[in-house]
Design brief:
disordered C terminus, alpha+beta, about 280 residues, about 20% strand
């Protein structure tokens, strides 16, 4: 069984939420799904049973009733018994401030229990499981998220130069030199590094690298695409360079990912792919 529902959030949330999907996956062998590093924070409310995660800042496999994962340069491993069911949101760094009143840097390179960040997580999970349709569930998600935004409407915004640097990097698709970004915002590369890391928890160079990697993930989803063509399209020197970056960031090369991670394709629709990177409003 594979069930996927892609939801488009209302205009008031589009600056903060780039991806909203419901999923149900069952009947496959038990295994490990690779949660890829990306330029978005990930919020997951699982149904039926907790998520068992390892990697990405976790010292040991840990169960989560709901999870909020920050920007990361390493994969999160999702251990499953051949079934997954829940709701997932992709949040921009601006969304971290708007929903939780904190900079993305405070969540970088780690996964935390959602209830520890926002006290409505448990009640939201219980409510969502009562609804019969994805439409009803996402209406409830939007209501709760809008409430969080209102509660944090006085949260301090980062410096305009930091927001612009993030926008330039994301818009550049992973091919924008950091020195050019610093020049465009009127800062030295050293100043950009310091202020950027303080807001996002990763360096500008890592943000460029993640953006390019995300492009390659989306392109590699299509099994008809030659990996050499994926490498060229996404700005890698060659297929070997692509494979090295995948090993560093995902823990495995794209050829192996295509063969082994069946769960990676449960959300494989055009809306999810297009929302997963390069969103111009992710600042």
């Amino acid at each position: 069984m594979r069930e996927h529902y892609s939801h488009t959030v209302g205009p008031a949330l589009r600056r903060y939420v780039t991806l909203a999907v419901g999923y149900r996956y069952a009947g496959a062998p038990a295994g490990v799904h690779v949660g890829m590093p990306s330029g978005t924070l990930t919020l997951v409310v699982p149904f039926d049973e907790p998520l068992l995660l390892s990697g990405a800042g976790l010292s040991r496999p840990t169960r989560f009733q709901g999870v909020l994962a920050g920007l990361a340069t390493a994969p999160t491993l999702i251990h499953h018994e051949g079934r997954q069911h829940g709701v997932q949101l992709g949040l921009t760094p601006a969304g971290a401030r708007a929903l939780f009143g904190l900079p993305a840097a405070e969540l970088a390179e780690r996964s935390v229990e959602l209830e520890d960040v926002v006290g409505v997580a448990r009640s939201l999970r219980d409510e969502l499981q009562e609804y019969a349709t994805w439409g009803e569930r996402f209406a409830a998600v939007e209501r709760v998220v809008l409430g969080l935004v209102r509660d944090n409407d006085s949260a301090r915004e980062p410096a305009p130069e930091v927001r612009e640097a993030w926008r330039l990097i994301r818009r550049g698709g992973g091919q924008t030199p950091v020195a050019a970004v610093a020049s465009d915002v009127g800062w030295s590369t050293r100043q950009l590094e310091h202020r950027f890391r303080g807001e996002f928890g990763i360096s500008p160079k890592s943000a460029v690298r993640l953006t390019r990697f995300e492009r390659s993930v989306q392109a590699a989803r299509d099994p008809r695409r030659r990996l050499a063509d994926v490498a060229a399209e996404c700005g890698y020197a060659d297929q070997s360079h692509l494979a090295r970056e995948w090993r560093d960031l995902a823990g495995l090369p794209p050829s192996r990912w295509r063969l082994e991670d069946d769960l990676a394709f449960v959300q494989d629709d055009e809306a999810a792919r297009s929302a997963a990177w390069g969103h111009d409003d992710t600042h």
